[in-house]
Amino acid sequence: MRRRVMIVDDSLIVRRQVQNALAAAGFEVTHAVDGVDALAKVDETPDLVLIFCDVNMPRMGGLELIEALASRGSSIPVVMLTTEAERSLIARADASGAKGWIVKPFDAEMLVETADLLTAGSAEP
Amino acid sequence: MNITLVDPDPIDVAVTARTLAAAGYAVSTFASLDGMLRASRGEPPKIVVLELDTVTADIVGKLRARAGAQLYILVLTSKPRAATAGSAFAAGADDYMRKPVRREELLARVAKAVRMQSLIAATCSDDASHSPLGRLKAWKGAELTVCVDVAAMTRAPLDVQETAAAGWTPEYCAQTRLFLPDQELELALLLTTNQASLSATARQMFGGADDPEVHQEVLLEMANLAAGALKRKALTEDVVFTLDLPACVPPAAGIALLEDAVLAKRWFLVARDRCFELRAAIRRRENRVVSVAELREGMVLVGSVRNAAGTLLAAAGTRLTSAMIDRLRAQVSGALSLEVARAAG
Q1: What are the start-end ranges of the H helices in A31-82?
Q2: Which of A100, A109, B196, B270 has its CA 20 to 30 A from that of A94?
Q3: pLDDT tens per residue across span B69-83
Q4: Nearest CA in chain A to B56
């Protein structure tokens, strides 16, 4: 079974870039446009094994999302994918259990390596 | 220009040094950071290629304390975990690449560092003010940082120029802001372009037939990347900006926004078949005081908000989202007054 990853980003461009990179490596990709959308889709997607998530988004940002997931007891790893590199934001994400922080523009190869690393043990693509 | 290599691996450092020397650079090599710092007391390095598995602010801070704020630091790592690139930039590195090093990539990144240092040498003033405005003025090389990021996203080489391509007419505009809420300052950023440039960029990124639906989205994400690059360039412990979300506006309205700027810069990112104009301007922006009931998405908090028990609900500098506003309204009185850095609407 193909591993399912979610990309949470308000930019259609970033969602397409992530989709192209991960689909080519054998992942299924679910899209969400902000934290509110992501929370709803997490509930509907029991086979989700990894989330890539932007920080600055409408309605609910990435840091709020990861805190909301942590408060629900979610064990899905989350990697932040953002233009931000502010230390206080990275520390806040770390404290909430984020598994990584990738600064845009991202490298497709690194994205796939990260997805492979964090989903090892799940079904192979 | 001299390139300083710091790498404990004697084989790696020899290979990298040979590659750079063959490209015409003078190269100094060191097995440790301390050794490099001891040896370079008289003349601080300008460009350091530093091998690190873990990049910390302490290491970068130590380097900058000895070599000056204008030092360009390219971090190499053999442990490319997802967090590494982010922590490298957060710690103050200027660029980052993974081992094994590909010759072409190394030379391209070092060439970028040299270009940036040349630009700094040409424009550097001695005004090392740590005030927010002083820090913003010290954008030296910011246009190259933006250019490199945008080119990486759009998969197209771009040059920085001071003038537009022939026949340039802006047709589309994306606007975003970086707030310094406690200083009542904002850095407004405008990215303008034309239909032909957007079409060429979208095709370059995604191939296939032209898709008009993605044009506006391409411009918005380019503006977002440019804002992130500028923020990283101006980021310090004391000066932390809050990024706004980019929005498309008519070009005339965007340019009118900059009329009261106290400092403005303008440059063009140009390739053979496309041109993007980037304007960055610092404006003074008066804060407002609103009640919790009046909070709106997009406002930026000037101070932190705590509940009656003293628990932090939202930190100073937070850009409010609707989810966060709902949480604040549930936990503090609606009549509580808060200072915010953006008008509603």
Answers
A1: 35-44, 62-71
A2: A109
A3: 668 888 888 766 544
A4: A87
Q: Find out whether B161 and B270 touch, Cβ atoms under 8 Å.
A: yes
d(Cα B88, Cα B77) in Å, to the nearest integer?
Answer: 10
Task: For residue B281, count other CB atoms closer than 10 A to its CB.
Answer: 21
Helix A108-118 / helix A12-24 crossing angle, nearest 10 deg = 60
Closest alpha carbon to B57 in B92, B33, B95: B92
State the best of A87, A89, A109, A111 to mutate against chain B, taking most chain B CBs within 10 Å: A87
Whole-model pTM: value is 0.72
- Whether A15 shows a pLDDT value over 70: the answer reads yes
- Cβ–Cβ of B85/A110 closer than 8 Å? yes
Residue B266: other Cβ atoms inside 10 A: 15
What's the Cα-to-Cα distance from B75 to each of A61, A81, B5, B53, rounded to whole Å?
A: 30, 20, 10, 9
CB A71 within 8 A of CB A56: no
Cβ-contact B226, B146 below 8 angstroms: yes
Q: CB of B89 within 8 Å of any CB in chain A?
A: yes
Q: Does A72 lie at the interface with B, CB-CB under 8 angstroms?
A: no
Q: How confident is the model at residue B240 (pLDDT cuts 50, 70, 90)?
A: confident
More confidently predicted of A1 and B110 = B110
